Every structure is written in structure tokens, then in C-alpha cells.
Amino acid sequence: MSSSRAAFGQLTYSLTPALRLTAGIRRTLDEKSRKGFDTVGSPVRVRIENDAAVEYAVTNGKVGIDYDLSKTVMLYGSFSTGYKAGGFNNGTVATNPFLYYDPERLSALEAGAKGRFLGGRLQLSASAFSYLYKGLQVSTVAINPATNAQTSQTRNAARAVVRGLEVEGKYAINPQSKLDFGFNYLDGHYETYRPTLTTNWAGYDLDNAPRTGLTLGYTHAWDLSNGGAVSANVNTKYSASYVMSDFSAPLQVRQDAFHKTNARLTYSAPGDKWMVQAYVKNIENKDVMVNYNNFAGGIVWLAQPRTYGVRFSTGF
């Protein structure tokens, strides 16, 4: 059982018509409890009660500043803190030190700019950020010592940091054609973390954190004489390589860099009364790893292969 209660507020004050300060605060009370048991022993099975309860009372906040450099360009910066509640690992005996996992805490610093250019045809945004995690919650599969069976567990890394840069944009080539594009750079790694007593992962990459990524999309729309519309979209994504971890092994495996392309063609009836869409995803049919487990010599979960189909929707 779990319950969460919170009180929060935020205030924005204009120092000048172009300069604004924002401050906010949130108080959260999380309560979690469980009633369970494990059975151990052979040939006689013994029931061991496995009840548990935790309570977390946390205060987080945010301060920020916005400045209108012009009518179409805004600069901003903020510092905020966040929190994710801890909990229990079900299927873990009461004497196991990993029955509980602790809250995850975040300190986030961000600065950036947003603007419209070329008469509004070009929209650009850019941001730089630095996130510090304490007690980062990571998922793993480990052996339950009572049953000798695999169980999914959440554990805490000591400290991790994520720093990066993101740029996104939209450009209207003309009223019917639009480009979307993006770029990101990411450095995410553990500052201090020991998956086991003899293993030190300080400096190791975080999971699913490619150093660079690129996105590019193109959309064209046609207005039809009957009041309907047709639109075509193609978009592609490039991802640098990244790692996946099995914290119980412990080891990391690497997904190679890849690119994936999707396309869709949509017809919308007059008044948007109904819509039909043909689509294809992962045109290159790339094998992309999304999860890994070292059990039984290694098990890999892959994203969907090339997928295509037709969708239909209607409104009432």
C-alpha cells in the first residue's frame, strides 16, 4: 500500500517588463507499507513474515530567472531539486539488505534560450544542463537467497552526474512544408558506485546515455478541394553507441551506433471527422538493444524490427 500527499506553491515576480524571477517550493509526504512472507527450507517449508513500512518527508524547491532579450528571444536559467521515493523489493526476504531501496535525489541546473526568427518561420531553442543524482535508482535482476530464483530488484547508486547540451528547431520552408531538427550531446556517468564490494564503477557510463544524437524530419501537407487534407512525414534518428548494465554480474554491454527512419502518409477527412494513416517504422530494420541480462549466458531484449500498418480513427 502507498499514499502520497503534497503541498506546493510557485510565485513569479516581474522586476522589470523584461526580467522575471520565479521561486517555488513543494513539501511531500510519502508512506509505503506491505505485508508479505517468504517460505524457506527443504523438505519442510517454513513461513517467514516479511512485513515492511517506510515514510519519507521531503522538501524541494526551484528558483529561476527569465529575461526577454527582444520581443522574439528569451533567455532563462533555473536551479531546482527533485526526489523519487524509495520502496521495497518484493520477493526479497526480510533479512536481505536489499529489501529496501532509498529515495533518489536530484539537483538540477539549467540555462538556455528560445527564439523565433525570419518572421517566425524559424523557431530555435538551446539549453545546457547539469544534473547531480544522489542515490540514483537502478534496476537489476538478482538471486533471491531464500528461493534461489531470479527476482527483479531496485538498488541505489551512490552518485551520478549527467551534463549535456540540447538544440531543437523548426523551420517552415513554406506554408505546406516544414523541417524539424535536433542535436544533443550527453555525458552521463557514475561518480561513485560499487555494484559489488569488489567492483568500482566510478567513471562508468550510465545506461541509455549516448554521447551524441541527431534527429531530422520533413513534413509536407496538401489541402484538397473537398476540404480534406493529406500529409506526408519522414523522420530519421541517429544515436551514438551506449551501454546497458547487468548490475548483478556486474558487467556492461555496448549497443553500437545506429540510425532509424520512420515514415507515414495521412489522409484527414473534411472537418477531421475521420483519419486513415499508413506507416512504416524502422525502415532500415535495425536490431537495437533495449535491455540486457547476463543470466544463462546473456539475454538481450530488442526494439521492434521493421513494422508497418494502417491506422483508422474517427470522432463523435
TrEMBL record:
Keyword Oxidoreductase recorded: no
Q: What biological-process terms (Gene Ontology) are attached?
A: iron ion transport
Where in the cell does this protein reside? Cell outer membrane
Q: Where is the TonB-dependent receptor-like beta-barrel domain?
A: 4-283
Q: Which GO terms of the cellular component aspect does the record hold?
A: cell outer membrane
Q: What is its main location?
A: membrane
Q: Which InterPro entries match?
A: Beta-barrel_TonB, Beta-barrel_TonB_sf, TonB-dep_rcpt-like
Q: Name one Pfam family in it.
A: TonB_dep_Rec_b-barrel
Domain of life where this protein originates: Bacteria
The cross-references to SUPFAM superfamilies, in alphabetical order and at most eight, read: Porins
Q: Does the keyword Calcium apply?
A: no
**The entry's keywords:** Cell outer membrane, Ion transport, Iron, Iron transport, Membrane, Receptor, TonB box, Transmembrane, Transmembrane beta strand, Transport
PROSITE patterns named in the record: TONB_DEPENDENT_REC_3
Q: How does it sit in the membrane?
A: Multi-pass membrane protein
Please report which protein family the annotation says this sequence is part of: Belongs to the TonB-dependent receptor family.
Q: What PANTHER family does the annotation carry? A: FERRICHROME IRON RECEPTOR-RELATED, TONB-DEPENDENT OUTER MEMBRANE RECEPTOR
Which protein is depicted?
Answer: TonB-dependent receptor
What species is given as this protein's source? Massilia cavernae
